Amino acid sequence: MTSRVKVLNFFHQHTTVNMRTSLAFVVAVNAVVGAAQVTSPPVYPSPNITGAGGWDGALEKAKAFLAELSADEKAGIVTGTPGPCVGNIAPISRLNFSGLCLQDGPLAIRQAVYASVFSAGLSAAASWDRSLNYDRGMLMAEEFRGKGSHIALGPVVGPLGRSPFGGRNWEGYSPDAYLSGVLVEETVLGMQSAGVQACTKHYIGNEQEVQRNPSRVNGTTVEAISSNIDDKTMHETYLWPFYNAVKAGTASIMCSYNRINESYGCQNSKTLNGLLKTELGFQGYVMSDWGATHSGVAAIQAGLDMDMPGGIGFISGDSSFFGGNITLAINNGSLPAERLDDMVLRVMTPYFFLEQDKGFPGIDKTTDGMGFFPQANYKHQFTLTPLVDVRDDHGKHIREMGAAGTVLLKNTNNTLPLKQPKNIGVFGNDAADLTQGQYTGVSVSNGLENGNYDIGTLPVGGGSGTGRFSYVVPPLDAIKAKASGSLVQYITDNFAIVNGGLRGIAPAPPDVCLVFLKTWAGEGDDRVSLLAEFNSTAVVESVTKICPNTVVVLHGAAPNTMPWKDNANVTAIIAAHMPGQETGNSIVDILWGDVNPSGKLPYTIANQASDYAKNLVNSTELRESTDPNAWQADFKEGNLIDYKEFDAEDKAVAYEFGFGLSYTTFELSDLKISASAKNLSRTPSSSAKILPGGNTELWDLVANVTATVKNSGAVSGATVPQLYLSLPSSEAGTGTPVRSLRGFDKINLAAGESATVNFPLMRRDLSFWDTGAQTWRLPAGAIGVDVGLSSRDLKLNGTITI
Ligand SMILES: *[C@@H]1O[C@H](CO)[C@@H](O)[C@H](O)[C@H]1NC(C)=O
Ligand SMILES: *[C@@H]1O[C@H](CO)[C@@H](O)[C@H](O)[C@H]1NC(C)=O
Ligand SMILES: *[C@@H]1O[C@H](CO)[C@@H](O)[C@H](O)[C@H]1NC(C)=O
Ligand SMILES: *[C@@H]1O[C@H](CO)[C@@H](O)[C@H](O)[C@H]1NC(C)=O
Ligand SMILES: *[C@@H]1O[C@H](CO)[C@@H](O)[C@H](O)[C@H]1NC(C)=O
Ligand SMILES: *[C@@H]1O[C@H](CO)[C@@H](O)[C@H](O)[C@H]1NC(C)=O
Ligand SMILES: *[C@@H]1O[C@H](CO)[C@@H](O)[C@H](O)[C@H]1NC(C)=O
Ligand SMILES: *[C@@H]1O[C@H](CO)[C@@H](O)[C@H](O)[C@H]1NC(C)=O
Ligand SMILES: *[C@@H]1O[C@H](CO)[C@@H](O)[C@H](O)[C@H]1NC(C)=O
Ligand SMILES: *[C@@H]1O[C@H](CO)[C@@H](O)[C@H](O)[C@H]1NC(C)=O
Ligand SMILES: *[C@@H]1O[C@H](CO)[C@@H](O)[C@H](O)[C@H]1NC(C)=O
Ligand SMILES: *[C@@H]1O[C@H](CO)[C@@H](O)[C@H](O)[C@H]1NC(C)=O
Fold first, then answer.
1. Is 289 known to be catalytic?
2. Cα(95) to centroid of ligand 3, in Å?
3. Which residues pair with 785 in a beta bridge?
4. Among 110, 446, 575, 753, which is least packed, fewest CB within 10 Å?
5. Considering the chain, what is the average pLDDT of its residues?
6. Same domain, yes or no: 320 and 426
7. With a 6 A CB cut-off, is 13 part of the ligand 5 pocket?
8. How far apart, in Å, do the first and last CA atoms of the chain sit?
9. What is its EC number (predicted)?
């Protein structure tokens, strides 16, 4: 039964829960408020952990542990408490349990000292490189482990990137669900191979920062934005990469701030009990985003397993919807004791599975005091150890990933790689060293922690997804080191460039002018423009006026629009993304050709911002509204985001999804398609096992596509052959994408060398979500197959009929 109920929850806060418990609490049913009339169907009870997928041994250990716990201790295992980490679960010394330390974030152990700052998810995505993504996960996790952190709060596949303006898109991978799915799977596997629990986030529909949390307007609570996502879009786009994360065994999932169909992400029984714990067979625990818990019993029944950071006042830690309220609720019969047992088992099973009970390092004492909680608030004693430097030689990997995630967009006159230029000009604020400290922990404009400083390079974005740099190699320093012997002249003050041109550069023009532009983005707000910042257009125009050989390098959030892209004096354009601490070395490797660029765009670059569907809900009127349900984001475009929207409307683009140049050339030939000989059922068997990742038959290999790729140029290099499928819309429904990525591989070839690229296709890859039957279904008709070097450079085609 589906009904929209306004529930006055057990703990006084007025909030919408998609449950029909205790009608005494219902104050309004199906009230007509807000722009949309949406509901989220109730799905109860919350499924128990079974240990499926190889966790049964660990589950037995968790059960033995559970048997030793008092009711208060059980509540403690699922409730954050103030401590040295961003999130803390209290130790129980009687049981030799030293507690759990949770730390941000997806590209570094955020606020730690003597730790590495890795490439952001955006760069990792642009590499399209499975093994580099695995390594990135593993090496980051080694650093978390080294500093005593059991749980790393990453990776990110929500936001997926519905809107190019999304403030946190760069923390994750790509608006393409398949690419994000493959890369999140590699990352989780890599992280957990190092014995650290991954927390894949933010679940789900957290596609904008504006109004992600409730606000107060004139004394009224206005609820967080509601992402209203239809069932088909949910499965085919937003839930898709979470399948991969769960299949890879992600220990936890973080539920998001926003509402889905008007029910909060951390108390939505359809998304938590239904999609995640039933359909996807998730065996781990759901933790709240920080402060995203809006109720106790209601959220717990809906599937929330852990409240973070534990305090109602966000960081106070002295009261929680969980904690003591859980024991009260069990005692008064409003919460079954078995549900709390399941929560504890879900939290403790990954701990035992990853053998975190066996000699896990203590918490680096420098973590304490720089973080989140005032020490005066601690209620428990945590085990601290002396400062440890966890960086090892990870800088090598970061340099490699930074270059691998760099995309060459334009290269006329073969201006790149550089050929021993004698006179090099370097321009733009992004070329310089940092000038306002090495930590952009929060994105709001508050003094030195404001990441959107003027002069200084932008190696990663801001907010909880950032990292504290122990060092940064700025582009200018790396260029000086590489070009020693040449003249390197530079102006890194954009104001001076815009107002004074290249005055002061002599002789002028330089042989090559390297212009470094940047685009800030961080948690807490969305982007207001797609242009690079700090008068970037005027900077490019000032330089090109004098310099006919100008190379523009963009760092930071993407995509950017590029009004100067067809300026004949702009001979090369590079989207260099967010490479991390080795940023200068990574770009020098590309500019001088020590690394042949092989990055591909994991998103579309439009000719102008208005070519994108805006997909960002925001206005002055909304901000002033006191309607609690004013903020509604209807995902009306369904699956048609990013390139799928441009293809559906046959719109021109500046640079398409999957595009990226190389210093060599590649050819594709010899497409071969082989489908399974078996007479496959249209849907996976309903009696097949549900393991983490869902019905196991979804992952059965049902077809292979192969092609030959040849390096037809003069230097060695890598490329990424891409497979796109076109499902028949007569069966898959209106809004079926013209093409969807369903395979890719990064192939390294010496000049003249050829290789076979193989695209194994699983049942899910060829299926669409059948909303009536509530299952994935293979179409009976022919499925179009295209193999190419981008989403619009399709070299080979054919069909598959399964
Ligand atoms: C229980 O929840 C209420 C809010 O509903 C809060 O005021 C109270 O402090 C909580 N109790 C504990 C023990 O955390
Ligand atoms: C949201 O509502 C849509 C349209 O009614 C429905 O298809 C979908 O399953 C709902 N999703 C959730 C999570 O409630
Ligand atoms: C979970 O297991 C308990 C026994 O430990 C049982 O009482 C309860 O019904 C189970 N819940 C579900 C949803 O299967
Ligand atoms: C909110 O208060 C401001 C002044 O305090 C007033 O101008 C505005 O009209 C009020 N808005 C609503 C929706 O009541
Ligand atoms: C049960 O305990 C919870 C948690 O303190 C409280 O909010 C709720 O009102 C209680 N319910 C009943 C029926 O006493
Ligand atoms: C307690 O845990 C440590 C590892 O953290 C282990 O070495 C030790 O043997 C354990 N002690 C007991 C009594 O289990
Ligand atoms: C640069 O842009 C800022 C706004 O970002 C503007 O205030 C300033 O006047 C511009 N400077 C120049 C020299 O164009
Ligand atoms: C390109 O550079 C030449 C100088 O070499 C200059 O005359 C011309 O105006 C420049 N074009 C633009 C669009 O800036
Ligand atoms: C680049 O090539 C164009 C046309 O091929 C030519 O007009 C221009 O002068 C060249 N620029 C440089 C810097 O060589
Ligand atoms: C949202 O709207 C407000 C009010 O119009 C504006 O000030 C703000 O810049 C907008 N933010 C974004 C990210 O569009
Ligand atoms: C696909 O290729 C693999 C070997 O790469 C083979 O084991 C498998 O049987 C093939 N499957 C189909 C459906 O062609
Ligand atoms: C396949 O490619 C050929 C040649 O490029 C083209 O004429 C044909 O329309 C394509 N077929 C499909 C189904 O896309």
1. yes
2. 26
3. 725, 798
4. 446
5. 93
6. no
7. no
8. 36
9. 3.2.1.21
